[in-house]
Each structure stands twice: as structure tokens, then as C-alpha cells.
Write a structure and sequence with these properties.
4 helices, four-stranded antiparallel beta sheet, 19 strands, alpha+beta, six-stranded antiparallel β-barrel, single chain
Length: 266
């Protein structure tokens, strides 16, 4: 056995194993640096900006991202209260605004590993789910590891100024008019604008059909320590978070290092 080189014609020829080892070391270094970057685990909400001049764009601009029916939506935002304004009153449960952070996606088959994006999907208990892009429709969705692993789960990131959200190095997010269809659960609730990712960089021509769509920017707005503390108090200061699909977390006091544990679903 010759582990790192082959002797041919009296000369030594290096084989790709050496390069592979070097790349592996660099990737491990990158992962270590990522794990140490606490700023990526600061919890944030997502506000929506739309520069289109069409009158319907007013329903989207200055909106906020919410999670409902395993889909990602844009709804108007109460500017002062910094909360979503429900399309219809009396929704049960109330609309849940995105409240999440970046963290490595737990999949040993992905090389290199990808940075994922998680959000709470409820306040009590504060269950976490992965945000991903459906491979078939390009719609943003949320779910546990089992639901997300075969789809586009990353790499999520922020722009150079750490202000806007990117996926795969691209701010290609589009709000698509799903229509207020009373035959759907979201239609009954008045939800209209679903978020998609322009994975083909063609304006979703192959995916949106005749539906109206607008390009949008997703702004990362960090939550204050007071907001995070209030969420903890509202959840009776529960330290262990109920899990869905192998993702669990432990919240610490604001300002302390967040710690995540990832395990396979039972």
C-alpha cells in the first residue's frame, strides 16, 4: 500500500490525497471559526422591502415575515409595535413572526457543510424549525430535519453590511401572489404574499405562471436583549426547548453564548 504517492518510472508523483487533506484542514478551520462567531446566532426578525411602484407592492413594502401553514409569508407590519398585522382578526393561533438565527445544518453527507437558518414557529413552547427552499416550487418553507433535508437548506448568509439576507450568495427573493383562495387554509385567513427564491435567476418565469410577483429584500433586524428576555419570561423561563425532527436548543440569558445541540430524530 502506498498512501500518499505512486512511484512511476523512478519518480514520485503526488496524488490528490494531499490536496484533499489540505482542503479538509481548511474546511475544519472554517467550521471552527463559524462556531465561534456568536454574532451569527443573535436572534433577529425579518422586515421586507419592495421598490416596485405598482400599487399592490404597497401591501409588501415595510412588511414582516411570518410563518404559517409550513410556508413563509409577507404581511403588513405595525411599525410602532414591530409586530405583524393579521389580514383577518381573531386568527388562532396568532401569526408568528420569524425569529431566528444562522447555524450549521446537521447533515454529514453535505461537503462542505452548509450554514442553515432556523426560526421559532411558536412562542410557547419556542419550537425551532429549519427554513428551506422547496426544490420543486422554489417556495420558502419551514419544517423539521426530515422535511427539509432533501431540499435547499443553505448556504444562508448576510450581505457584507450584515443587513440583508442572502441564500447561496444571492438576494433572489420574490413575493408571489398566492391569491385569497377560500379553498385553502391560508386563503381563509387572508394570507396572500408567499416568499419564493429565484433559484434559476429568471424572475421565476418557470414557476410563478400568471401569478403576479415582486422582487423583495429581506432585512435582518436584530432583537433587543429586552425582547429576547420577554420571550423567555412569556415561556415561563423554560430552558429546554421541545424539539421537532432532531433540532434542540438551550436559551441562556441575553448576552450569554447561545448553545445548540443537534441530534438525529428518534
Amino acid at each position: 500500500m502506498i498512501p500518499l504517492a505512486l512511484f512511476l518510472g523512478g519518480s514520485v508523483i503526488a496524488i490528490p490525497v494531499v490536496t484533499g487533506i489540505a482542503e479538509g484542514v481548511q474546511e475544519q478551520k472554517k467550521q471552527n471559526e463559524e462556531a465561534a462567531n456568536e454574532t451569527r446566532m443573535i436572534k433577529f426578525n425579518i422586515y421586507v422591502h419592495c421598490e416596485d411602484e405598482h400599487e399592490l407592492a404597497d401591501d409588501i413594502d415595510e412588511g414582516i415575515i411570518v410563518l404559517r401553514h409550513n410556508k413563509v409569508w409577507v404581511v403588513p407590519r405595525d411599525i410602532e409595535a414591530r409586530k405583524p398585522i393579521p389580514p383577518k382578526q381573531g386568527l388562532t393561533p396568532e401569526l408568528h413572526a420569524f425569529a431566528g438565527f444562522f447555524i450549521q445544518y446537521p447533515d454529514d453527507e453535505r461537503c462542505p457543510v452548509e450554514r442553515g437558518l432556523v426560526s421559532t414557529i411558536s412562542d410557547d413552547p419556542p419550537v425551532l424549525n429549519w427554513i428551506y427552499v422547496n426544490n420543486d416550487t422554489y417556495a420558502l418553507a419551514y419544517g423539521n430535519r426530515t422535511a427539509s433535508i432533501t431540499h435547499m437548506v443553505g448556504a444562508w448568509d448576510w450581505t457584507d453590511d450584515e443587513r440583508y439576507i442572502m441564500l447561496d450568495g444571492f438576494e433572489g427573493f420574490i413575493a408571489v401572489d398566492e391569491g385569497i383562495d377560500p379553498s385553502t387554509e391560508w386563503g381563509k385567513e387572508g394570507l396572500r404574499w408567499a416568499v419564493y427564491f429565484d433559484n434559476d435567476d429568471d424572475g421565476l418565469k418557470k414557476k410563478k405562471g400568471k401569478r403576479r410577483a415582486f422582487e423583495i429584500g429581506l432585512e435582518r433586524v436584530c432583537q433587543s436583549a429586552e425582547e429576547q428576555l420577554k420571550q423567555l419570561e412569556d415561556a415561563d423561563k423554560k430552558m429546554q426547548v421541545k424539539t421537532r425532527g432532531g433540532l434542540s436548543t438551550q436559551f441562556t440569558a441575553p448576552g450569554a453564548e447561545a448553545r445548540m445541540k443537534k441530534k438525529e430524530a428518534a
